[in-house]
Specification:
Blueprint: E1 7-9, E2 15-17, H1 18-28, H2 43-46, H3 55-67, H4 72-82, H5 93-104, H6 109-117
Helix pairs in contact: 1-4, 4-6
The protein binds iron/sulfur cluster.
């Protein structure tokens, strides 16, 4: 039985049900900038230029900061909903595409967020 007839297409081409989008939006609403571990960090670390030879090191440094961030789940939720660029919740854009694929298979949003934020997503 189809319980959710309405689906929304994200910019990346991933499809979320209305309920999944609602869950992500609700979780994203908990993002409090004043609690973010990156609030005093160098923004370049979270938006590394791929042409920068230090981009991998910068991304890894950002991911280590994200790993200890108290609002990582909300941050990741916001990035998934809004198709953000750069590193959010310790994940790269490619990793978030994989997470959206996983959500698209029907795995619960909160379970996917746990998988993604319970450990650093990027290699150090
Ligand atoms: S998870 Fe990372 S990018 Fe998101 S608020 Fe925390 S430190 Fe900043």
């Amino acid at each position: 039985m189809i319980t959710e007839a309405v689906q929304l297409m994200l910019p990346l081409g991933h499809t979320l049900t209305t309920d999944q989008r609602t869950d992500l939006t609700r979780l994203a609403s908990g993002l409090q900038a004043d609690r973010a571990a990156c609030r005093d960090g160098n923004p370049d670390d979270w938006h590394p230029d791929p042409d920068d030879p230090d981009s991998a090191a910068k991304a890894a440094r950002a991911a280590r900061t994200c790993a200890g961030c108290p609002v990582a789940r909300a941050c990741l939720s916001a990035a998934l909903v809004a198709d953000e660029q750069g590193i959010w919740g310790g994940t790269t854009e490619g990793q978030r595409a994989d997470l959206l694929d996983l959500i698209g298979t029907g795995v619960r949003v909160e379970a996917v967020l746990s998988i993604a934020t319970d450990r650093p997503r990027l290699a150090a």
